[in-house]
Amino acid sequence: MCFKVKKEINSIFLNYLLNTELYRNSIINRSYTSALTGIRSSDYYETKIPLPSLTEQQKIASILSSVDDEISKLELKKKSAESLKKGLMQKLLTGQIRVQV
Q1: pTM recorded for the entire structure
Q2: Is the distance from CB of 23 to CB of 17 less than 8 angstroms?
Q3: Do residues 25 and 19 make contact, with C-beta atoms less than 8 angstroms apart?
Q4: How far apart are CA 97 and CA 92, in angstroms?
Q5: How confident is the model at residue 1 (pLDDT cuts 50, 70, 90)?
Q6: Per residue in 63-84, pLDDT tens?
Q7: Which residue in 64, 66, 30, 67 sits closest to 47, CA to CA?
């Protein structure tokens, strides 16, 4: 579906906005169900989205992007720690490493 936006909007902010639960629920509430679930384009176009000013959108998008980057870094760190744990557990279980109590 193609969007027509009446105001100027930051594309990164729009991406975050369209992926929120609030927006998703508003679209689900407008959808109809038969054999398949769908939404009429007219209902989709009537969805109102309150927008802050463009500078505020840019600030919000910047903050959310930096938070996403931090989350990605932490997820990589977590995967690395889990991998290290698995390796150490395997060495402990096979007796390659002994633990002194």
Answers
A1: 0.68
A2: yes
A3: no
A4: 5
A5: low
A6: 999 999 999 999 999 999 999 9
A7: 30
